[in-house]
Amino acid sequence: MDNLQNKIAADFLDVSCRKLGLMTEYLTTCVKKLTEEQVWHRQGAHENAVGNLVLHLCGNARQWIMHGVGGAPDVRVRDKEFSADRGMSRAELVALFEATMTEAKSVIAAVPAERLVERITPQGRDVSVLEAICQVVGHVQQHTGQIILVTKQMLAKDLDLTMPRPR
Question: Which pTM value belongs to this model?
């Protein structure tokens, strides 16, 4: 692999880890601002609570990154992520998410450039290691955005996550 390809691979892995780090900051800020009741509140059976989304992101990252990329056993039970109801406190959810993202970033950062094109099968899907990393980063960003919106709605205020402004 030539030097340019190595630089591109290193940049991709670095950006992926930084994005997961930033989303961790946003998500944990939101969860810490909510009450225990708000973390598990659903408007109806068709919605997931913030707590469910946190569990879902952890399960997804574990299956796609730690298992698919890192080779750890696949221990995910996806249905439990959505059926949980007040099973964990805010502090436990934050600790779980932070630990999961730290582990995911560690696995991602250790991927050699030549492995990015290797084929793996998380959730039975045939994808490259690069695609698996993209899937998880995008998935975390998507659901973190939902958590930000729900938090703003529940608190009826801006959270000043990206650009604090005087009010």
Answer: 0.94
